[in-house]
Amino acid sequence: MKPFDTDSVPQHRVTVLKGRGALTNLQGRFEVNTREQIDDGWTTSNETEPAGDKKLIKTQVISEIAKSILSRNSSPDIPFNVSLNPYYGCEHGCVYCFARPSHSYLGLSPGLDFETRIVAKVNAADLLRQELAKPSYVPEAIALGVNTDAYQPCERSLKITRGVLEVLHECYHPVGLITKSSLIERDIDLLSEMAAKRLVSAAITITTLDSSIARTLEPRAAAPERRLRTIRTLTDAGIPVGVSIAPIIPFVTEPDIERVIEAACEAGALHVNYIVLRLPWEVSPLFQQWLEAHFPDRAQRVMNRIRDMRGGKDYQAEFGTRMRGEGVWADLIKQRVEKTVRRLGLEKRMIRFGQLDSSRFRRPLSVPAMDRKGSGQPDLF
Q: Which of 54, 99, 287, 340 has the most CB atoms in a 10 Å sphere around its CB?
């Protein structure tokens, strides 16, 4: 398959939608027909648009009976082999999210659809219980919510992540969590008990301490100050927590690197991870639209720096460089992070994902009967 062609994306005036990260419903790369928005002069002038549905898009949550729940990878630059994602799509609306292109596989847009049409795997806990009960299952730490946030807004009512954690808690199974949401505090009762047995590690993502940037970059995620309070709350509950600076965006969030690490350390963070902005597939045109809307004065400068770290391209997917970039600018970012980490002594307190304890694992006491559709109810005939 040829790389996604950013030059083929229709260029037209777009409207910033309140509470949303993407500016358009950019078509996915698998779509056969191309549609382009034009102004035919019959609706509004070129200067204004009416307030209406376009300015307020409601979130739709679609229930799915999943067939499987654990994903496995062998990527050398990812610190885990097994992950579990309770949701497709994420209402936090982070414009840079590397998971956006996955919505194309559902026939939905990686743009606004990704953050407004959420697919919830309502049988996640039952599937996990079945998986852990298999005689062939070998326990190793599961990364929970690494593709899309397991604590996004709809989790407050659906409690799918809560159900997954209850299974892991029952089975003494290690888990690592990463989130931008303070909703993780809801599950401290489970997480603190697991932490006492070295079964859990958490990371809070903080891209910037500038709340005005965060409001447009990650419109429905918790504010930076609230995330810092979450680090403190988890730390006080005995849960080992780190900070993930992801992504680092040149000239946008990059000036905040040292301040984020210092603030997170003061709040109780034990370790630091960072990722340089990744722009795979449809993420590149979506991010460039966002740049032109919010930072037109530096948009070209930002993209030039990104390409400097990506061999002249918007993105390189090769293992070893995709997370950090390459070249002098990538090296400078690495030095800044490492220097700050050493100054604060964080590297001596770092808790690695692989250090979680798998030896306590015990298989679930009960396993729900599942029909061919995975509904949790056996067939009548």
A: 287
